[in-house]
Structure formats: structure tokens, C-alpha cells
Amino acid sequence: MITMEHICKTYRIAKRNAGFAEACKSLFHREYEEIHALSDISFTIGDGEIVGYIGPNGAGKSSTIKILSGILTPDSGSCLVDGHIPWKDRTAYVRGIGVVFGQRSQLWWDVPVIDTFQLLQEIYSIPDALYRNNLEELTDLLDLHELLRTPARQLSLGQRMRCELAASLLHSPKILFLDEPTIGLDAVSKLAVRDFIRKQNEAHGTTVILTTHDMQDIEALAKRIILIGKGHILMDGTLADIQKGGESIDETVAELYRAYDI
């Protein structure tokens, strides 16, 4: 289903010191720093898997998700997702994926949530019968009945994230990319989101790649974890492979980060 082979991505970032003189100087002579976000990334994920993609800040998690979702084009390497190259033929490709970025929104800010859902129906050319069926199912599972008529800007973070999940699944994607979907959520909302992701996977066989700093999300959902650090894949295995005795999942991962010096 998902295959990445020798993917590399480098960013060229402009740097300068503070002050007006430095700003003027940078107009004529700009200094750059190259950041190697991804270096020779390779992995394969099968149909119906839930995989936790973990690593510290700046490790390359979001860059990977953006390449897999077709937002970024890598410098080199190959990637095949459900028979498509993500950054090519995007119109056909995005019909089979759903993406949720915890710090970005796909909801129109000033209109009721249901208006965004209807717009997404048009964008993805979802047949009326399928749209109604999916909307009813997602509304029940995520308890959106009182939220659909509310503008997105008036929703709490937990309410908005439930609507974001529904928006990403209206077109029945085979693959779901989740980039920190529980960031900032309270305990009740986190449990609700985790339960929904698990049910979606079990009921529809949806393949899920989950990036998060909340290790309880990983422990609750993912049987397999891929660890990335400084742009390199450092480990691909299960939590059982790394857990020791009575250590909590947070202690286990912190020890793993120290062992790999990331």
C-alpha cells in the first residue's frame, strides 16, 4: 500500500542577524543554511496497519507526511501510495487519502461546519447517497449533532478536531494521515478521538499513519512504531521490542531518544 525508498528532502533557509543594517545587508548578500530534513528514508506499510511515526521536534515527521500526502516533492527517491506517486496526478491521488494536521484546519472559519462538508462533497465529487451515509455515520460516531450548524471559529479545540476527522473521512479514503491529531485536547476528547480512529480502522480497514508526541496515543492505537531522528529512520518495530519491565511508555521513549542521541 505505502512504499518509500531512499527519500531525501533538504530545505534552504535564509539566515541573518538582528537589526536594520543586517536587514539591508541581506538584500544584497543573503546567507543560507541547508537543513537535511530527510536522509535516505525507506519503509513499507501494509493495508490496514496503524503505524506510529515518532521522533523529537525537527526529526522529519511532518516532512514525511507532507511528501506522502503530495504537498511536498522530495529531492530524490521514490514513493508509491496505493499505486500513485503522491506529488504527481494529485487529483486522482487525493481521492484515496485523508489528512488531518493538528495545527492546521480545513474547515472554513466563518461558516457552519455543514457548509464545509458540503463543499468537500463537491470537491471530491462524492455521490449524494455515499455522502449522506458517511455524514450520518461520522455524525453519530463523533457526536457532531450539535456542532454541524456552528461556525468553526466558535468551536472548542476538541470539537474542532472531531469535525476535522469527519471532514477527512467524508470521501471514504483508504489511507488516513494524522499529524498530531490530539494536540491540546483534554483527556475526554483524546479518548474519544482514539476510540474513533480504532473503530474506523476495524470497521473499514483504513490504513493509519499517526505522528504525535503523546505516547499514550501510540500505546493505545499502534502495534508498530517507526522512529525517526535527525532525518534518519532509527528503528522499525513494536513497543514490546523496546519496553523494559514496568517502565511507562513515556519513560521507554525518553530512554530510546537518549540511546540514539536525538
Describe this structure in words.
- By secondary structure, the chain is of the alpha/beta class.
- The chain has a single domain, classed as Rossmann fold.
- The chain has ten helices and nine strands.
- Helix 5 packs antiparallel against helix 6.
- The longest helix has 18 residues.
- The radius of gyration is 20 Å and the shape is globular.
- The two termini are 29 Å apart.
- The mean pLDDT is 90.
Provide the CATH architecture. 3-Layer(aba) Sandwich
User: What's the main sheet like?
Assistant: 6 strands, mixed
Low-confidence stretches: none
**N-to-C order of helices and strands:** EHEEHEHEHHHEHEHEEHH
Q: What is the CA-CA span between the terminal residues?
A: 29 Å
Average pLDDT confidence is: 90
* Helix fraction bin: 25-40%
Rounded Rg: 20 Å
The number of domains is: 1
| Strand coverage percent | 25-35%
Shape: globular
Please give the order of strands in the largest beta sheet: 5-6-7-3-8-9
- H/I helix tally: 10
The CATH topology annotation reads as Rossmann fold
Instruction: Name the structural class.
Output: alpha/beta
- Corresponding CATH superfamily: P-loop containing nucleotide triphosphate hydrolases
Strand count: 9
Which CATH first-tier class would you pick? Alpha Beta
